[in-house]
Design brief:
The complex is a heterodimer of chains A (100) and B (579).
Chain A lengths: L2 H19 L15 H25 E3 L36
Chain B lengths: L6 H11 L8 H4 L2 H12 L5 E6 L2 E7 L2 H20 L6 H18 L4 H20 L4 H32 L11 H13 L7 H6 L7 H20 L5 H19 L3 H22 L2 H32 L15 H14 L11 H11 L2 H27 L15 H19 L2 H6 L12 H20 L9 E3 L4 H4 L1 H36 L1 H9 L12 H29 L1
Antiparallel strand pairs in B: 1-2
Helix pairs in contact in B: 1-3, 1-5, 3-4, 4-5, 4-10, 4-13, 4-17, 5-6, 5-10, 6-7, 6-10, 7-8, 8-10, 10-12, 10-13, 11-12, 11-16, 12-13, 12-15, 12-16, 13-14, 13-15, 13-17, 14-16, 14-17, 15-16, 16-19
Classes of the chains: A mainly alpha (100), B mainly alpha (579).
Chain lengths: 100, 579
Amino acid sequence: MQTRHWRLLFGAGLLGSVILGFLGDTAPVYIWDFALFFAIFGLLGCLLLSYLAKGLVSPVLDRPEDFYSETDTEGDWSTQTPAARPDADAHRTPSSSGEG
Amino acid sequence: MFGLLPPGLILILGALLLPLVPRNARAWAFLVPPVLALLHLGGLESGDQATWSFATFELVPLYVDTLALVFGWIFALVALVAGVYALHLRDTGQQVSALLYAGSGLGAVFAGDLFTLFFFWEIMAFASAYLVWARRTEESYASAMRYLFVHLLGGSLLMGGALWHISQTGSIAFTAFEPSAATWLILGGFAVNAAVVPFHAWIADAYPRGTITGSVFLSAFTTKTAVYTLARGYLGWEVLIWAGLLMALWGVTYAILSNDIRRVLAYHIVSQVGFMVTGIGIGTELALQGATSHAYTHILYKGLLFMATGAVIYATGRSKMTELGGLMRQIPATFWFYMVAALSISSAPFFSGFISKPMTISAAEYASTPTVVLLLHLASVGTFLSVGLKLPYFTWFGDAPKEPVKTVAIPWNMYAAMGIGAALNVILGIWPDPLYAILPGGVVDFDPYELKNLKKGFQLLLFTALAFFAIVAYLKPKPKIQLDTDWFYRVSAERAWNATVVPVERFFKWWEGASWGAAGTVARAGIDPVRWIRALSGAEPVPISSPGETSSTTFRVSMTVMMVLLVGALGLIMLLMVI
């Protein structure tokens, strides 16, 4: 499937979920019983959380990746995966021993 | 099968025997104990109990009820699936510790008394720390040490609280607790393992640094054992509602920012366990069923998430979103497996999370305030945003990194394990009845496929996705880490060390230097006392003679003998005085 098809499918899904909201028993008891409550909640919730994380938390608490230790090897997988070994090109298939 | 043997001991015994199996058969032999445990669980019934006498206490190493059985089933099952995932592994240390870890987790959920619980609790801490050590980098060593210290602190709280509780009540039984100082201490111990904020930072510190297969095991047992103990001991404690909500939101906020793919998942454990803790805090029958079923499905989908990300790391040798991207052409199958798990954790209809998470939220609708309900929904949005959208987008799609990613073939067994995991998640999502039948507390009064639940499920996820695609550039990952509560013991520990230990060390170093200096002076003076006597009496100083000058040597020897006699006589007089 091409990107255009996925977009169409996604649009149809959005429309379908909106129609679904108006089906069945729609007499609201709580605020979340309104037909489009969760559509709006999902939209605004996503924006709110993104802003909370990227706009408020990130500027205050972001640090460089080697903040705690200059030798932080979190991204170093050379002891564990064949792909990260210095000689990775020479052995493109995983060997039978050692790695995990 | 095996009578009333605690199921955990089957795995622990297996771990002890595993090194005796030939090396190449070891990975396959790993699968035997979980299978035996599953068979054994099939023969256990609610109400079964085994007691062993220990000193003056009657220990209960096996206490079976519906709550324990649900956790028992899923623990044994995930040990088996993760064992398949690790079939290519040739590392005895990891295999033994993984089995020991799973066994002690299984042991803990069937523990009927506090001593047995503590015993398995501590094995769990050490065995799991090894799975981080086994990565064999300097940083994973340090991280595992921090992990171990945090868990030993939790274990100490548990032990202290347990002893206090036993001295107050005279009972070692592990049952529902009444509030007291002792039970609060025990709660603290459980909170460490459940990753309750602010005791949660170990999880984001250690899990991304574990080995590829090790972290699959790690994601299953520690936190869920704690969920089980909270459900048994602290059902309906209101403080847990708020603690759980804080976890649910804290976890998603950090997950949105994390760059390491397995750190995103680790923060999501905090968030998902938050849902369970909230359910336990609400404490109604439906809430307990929600929390228990959510723990069950969580182990399945979280295991699959760690397996899929592990496969990405295996294939590419990279683990950061900023260094990944555009992998859809190279390893598309991992994407689809990952998405099954991601849709499950986001509780999309027809996937496993959909039959459990909405149950907890539904229980909150009946028995709690609208604030709780809305905050839980907000956390759900965050879950889909970070695990369901951001992570896969920037790993399999998005811009390819500057340095092109090379991939190696992923072993067949990893695909097989992911296939099993994905199948379980989908089957359970469509057909939840087998799980609902074994939940504690009777018939489940919840139908996930009611129209209102489907409305919620579809609208929430699809519109979250719409918002995500609108702001995708804003959410681009950055090569940064975020400070969390581990800052207090990682940075301030160094400062505290500098303030307390370093001055003491400096003082002793100075004192040592001064003592050696004094001793050196006395020793030099002792070589030739006459020289000093002469110098003090104002006589001409005689240079220290060379070996050839006999006259001076004779004089010096006689003087030295005289000094020795003098000191000896003084000593003798003092000795006589003392006597």
